[in-house]
Amino acid sequence: MIDAHRPPSSRVAHRRQGGGNVQAAGSVYGIRQKILAGHLPKENCRMTWYGPGTGGVCVACERPIAADDVEVECDLPTGGTIRLHRGCYDIWVAEWPTCDVG
Ligand SMILES: [Zn+2]
Asked: Ligand 1 centroid vs 97 CA: distance in angstroms?
């Protein structure tokens, strides 16, 4: 459920540290929680596309994907498409295989 109270701020303070890792908006912990709760799928994407943000909301961190961010669009084998920040996508693909319940 997305709360629409927050105005879309185009001026997000974005701290960029030079080079190296992409700082994801989501955290490993938060994304793991979503996987475990079933809010994020545990499956490989059938297809992925990388492109600039199109104003969608990242399924992993529920923040908008800005036009100067990289958006990963992912087709699921079971149908449907999800969009994530590139950093969130990287966390998700690394984490879901380790999130086996049971
Ligand atoms: Zn995200």
From this structure: 19
- How far is ligand 1, taken at its centre, from the CA of residue 87, in Å? 7
Judge whether residue 52 has pLDDT over 70. Answer: yes
| Centroid of ligand 1 to alpha carbon of 102 (angstroms) | 27
Identify the H or E element spanning 39: none
User: What is the domain partition of the chain in residue ranges?
Assistant: 10-98
pLDDT surpassing 90 at residue 70: yes
pTM: 0.73
